[in-house]
Specification:
about 180 residues, 4-stranded antiparallel sheet, 13 strands, globular
């Protein structure tokens, strides 16, 4: 019935992706687009990564490194994916995924995109963090060893589609073009 803005420390925000840490629910990570600072994607705003250690009451910009806050492909914000057991470890799913293990002070490339993948989102198994999934334009990629190796998205009937159409046959056929493939 009532809502309270949790904006202390944040700029005026036009867009945000938020994640709650499984290991400490008071720790939040947010990728945000600043409403008052036009960015490279027209009026969608400059981007930054923020962290709250008090369930959103206050926010701190954790890095000025623009790489982990870079927009994905057509302009989507990256998605923070907190590690379920290590509160200072978070992966930013983006065109290239970036990882920090020190709460956002330093970042390193985690998984690149040689195959045209844009990492849209992800999941880390809370019981076994070596098992991870990245949702990509073509479907999904999976690791069972903490990211040392990844499956191909060619081995599964999943994909991102922009438009789907059915023809007039009976039974009808569904047609679509797969994103970036």
């Amino acid at each position: 019935t009532t809502w309270k803005p949790l904006t202390n420390g944040l700029p005026a925000v036009v867009q945000a992706n938020l994640a709650i840490c499984y290991s400490n629910p008071k720790r939040l990570y947010a990728a945000v687009a600043f409403a008052n600072e036009p960015g490279s994607s027209a009026s969608r705003g400059t981007t930054g990564i923020f962290r709250s250690d008090d369930a959103g009451e206050t926010w701190t910009r954790i890095t000025t490194d623009t790489r982990p806050s870079g927009r994905i492909g057509g302009g989507d914000l990256p998605m923070p994916i907190p590690h379920p057991k290590q509160v200072d470890t978070v992966i930013m799913a983006a065109t290239v995924s970036w990882k920090t293990t020190d709460g956002g002070k330093t970042w390193s490339a985690y998984k690149g995109a040689p195959g045209g993948e844009d990492y849209q989102n992800g999941w880390i198994n809370p019981d076994n963090p070596d098992i991870m999934l990245f949702a990509v334009d073509q479907g999904a990629v999976v690791t069972l060893n903490g990211g040392r190796t990844w499956s191909s998205w060619y081995n599964q009937p999943t994909a991102q589609m922009y438009h789907v159409a059915a023809d007039n046959a009976f039974p009808y056929r569904v047609c679509s073009g797969q994103q970036e493939s």
